[in-house]
Amino acid sequence: MKIRQGLVSNSSSSSFLLFLDEIPETKEEVKELLFPGEEIFGNPFFWGSEPRGWPIDSVVDIIHADFQNATRLGEEEILEKLTSGWLTEVDPGWETWDQIRELGPRPEFEDKEAFSKWRESLEDLHKQHEKESLELARIYRKTLPYSNVVISVCYGDEDGALYSAIEHGETFRNVEHIAISHH
C-alpha cells in the first residue's frame, strides 16, 4: 500500500477511506464483502489490447494484504486524509476545468514571468479546491460513523493495469467509503 500526499502529474492514484464494521480477516471474508457472487473483476479500461478482466481471487489477494497491513484511523488522521487530495464529492466540474483551460498551455520554463503567472493562477485554483475540501472534511468529521473501523488503502496506475482497474473500477461500491483522488 502506498500513501501519497498532494497532487501527482503523469500518474493516477486514489486513496479510499473505508468504513467497516470490522476488518475482514480472511480472503473469503474480503471476497464476500466486496464481490459477492463475482468471479471476474472487469477492466474498466478495456480497449482491446488490455485484459478484459482478472480472476476475482487476484484482486482479493491484493486487497486482503492491504487490509491486513492497514491501521485504524482516528479523527485527526481521517481529517488529514480527507484534505490530502481531491475529494470526489468536490468534483472540480466544468467550471474549474474551464478555468484551467483559460490559463492556456503551460508556458516554457525559460519565460520565467509567464511561467510564474501561470503557476500562481493554477495554485490559486488548487487553494480554492483545498478550501472546499476542508469544509467538506469538517462536515464529514461531524457525521461519519466513528463507531466503525476506518482504514485507508491506496491504488494507482503506477503499479500496472490491475491496480489502475482497482482504483477506477468501483471496487468498494459495496461498502461505505470516500474516494480521494491524487491525480
Overall 3D shape: flat
Give the integer mean of the pLDDT values. 79
Q: Into how many domains do the coordinates divide? A: 1
Taking the sheet with the most strands, its summary is: 4 strands, antiparallel
How many strands appear in the DSSP assignment? 6
Please report the number of helical segments: 6
Task: For the record, give the distance between the C-alpha atoms at the N and C termini, rounded to a whole number.
Answer: 17 Å
Beta-strand share of residues: 15-25%
Specify Rg, calculated over alpha carbons.
18 Å
- What's the order of the H and E elements? EHEEHHEHHEHE
The strands making up the biggest β-sheet line up spatially as: 4-6-1-5
Low-confidence stretches: 1-9
Helix content: 40-55%
